[in-house]
Amino acid sequence: AQSVTQPDIHITVSEGASLELRCNYSYGATPYLFWYVQSPGQGLQLLLKYFSGDTLVQGIKGFEAEFKRSQSSFNLRKPSVHWSDAAEYFCAVGALETGRRALTFGSGTRLQVQP
Amino acid sequence: NAGVTQTPKFRVLKTGQSMTLLCAQDMNHEYMYWYRQDPGMGLRLIHYSVGEGTTAKGEVPDGYNVSRLKKQNFLLGLESAAPSQTSVYFCASSYFGKGVAYEQYFGPGTRLTVT
């Protein structure tokens, strides 16, 4: 069964600084990978997704992520963080073979942005 | 398009009471899901449906039942609520595409407290 690990429970960065959120997955075949963001009291919004092809994926709000098969990682990055980026971020992996096509989520990383 | 909507947004139940959470989507999606979100645990799949009239169990189905009588609606029922079911419940939907990966669209969530 697939699994997702987000090693950092909580990260604090200064506004304008760069950001990298880590995600490691476990899955036997080529995974389908997603990053979602959840603002307080809100549902989850898709930031970006990786299906195949170019391993550097661009998303909304200036985010990007890089798929590294050798490291089983799909880290999320942003060159310059804005205060509005403060939220919880979830990495997720999906698999066509499971039939149900549900996603397996990591436990999330909460991002705080200092002025 | 409203996307995925959930009712109610908040609910407080006493132990042993029952209730039904309603999820509706207007995107003509085949797949629908119910997740629960608890601190530090990400989202866990309760039940899912791959089409009208079909439902199946996810990771944590005990204490819940579901029904999908219409394609656009997915109901989650708690027959006898327990404090362990205090959580935030999210509904999601996705399209079906053979050989195509899928992103899920989430509702705003229902915060349920069982006392």
Explain this structure.
The complex is a heterodimer of chains A (115) and B (115). Chain A is 0% helix and 51% strand. In chain A, the strands form three sheets. In chain A, strands 2, 5, 6, 10, 11 and 12 form a six-stranded mixed β-sheet that branches. In chain A, strands 3-9-8-7 form a four-stranded antiparallel β-sheet, with no helix packed on it. The mean pLDDT of chain A is 91. Chain A is mostly beta strands. The radius of gyration of chain A is 14 Å and the shape is globular. Helices cover 0% and strands 52% of the residues of chain B. Chain B is globular. The N and C termini of chain B lie far apart (36 Å). The model of chain B has no long low-confidence stretch (mean pLDDT 92). Chains A and B meet through strand 5 and strand 6 of A and strand 5, strand 9 and strand 10 of B.
Topology of this protein?
The complex is a heterodimer of chains A (115) and B (115).
Chain A: E1 3-5, E2 10-14, E3 19-21, E4 24-26, E5 32-38, E6 44-50, E7 56-58, E8 64-68, E9 73-78, E10 87-94, E11 103-105, E12 109-114
Parallel strand pairs in A: 2-12
Antiparallel strand pairs in A: 1-4, 3-9, 5-6, 5-10, 7-8, 8-9, 10-11, 10-12
Chain B: E1 4-7, E2 10-13, E3 19-25, E4 31-37, E5 43-51, E6 54-57, E7 64-67, E8 73-78, E9 87-94, E10 105-106, E11 110-114
Parallel strand pairs in B: 2-11
Antiparallel strand pairs in B: 1-3, 3-8, 4-5, 4-9, 5-6, 7-8, 9-10, 9-11
Annotation keywords:
heterodimer, A: mainly beta, 6-stranded mixed beta sheet, 4-stranded antiparallel beta sheet, 51% strand, B: 115 residues, mainly beta, 7-stranded mixed beta sheet
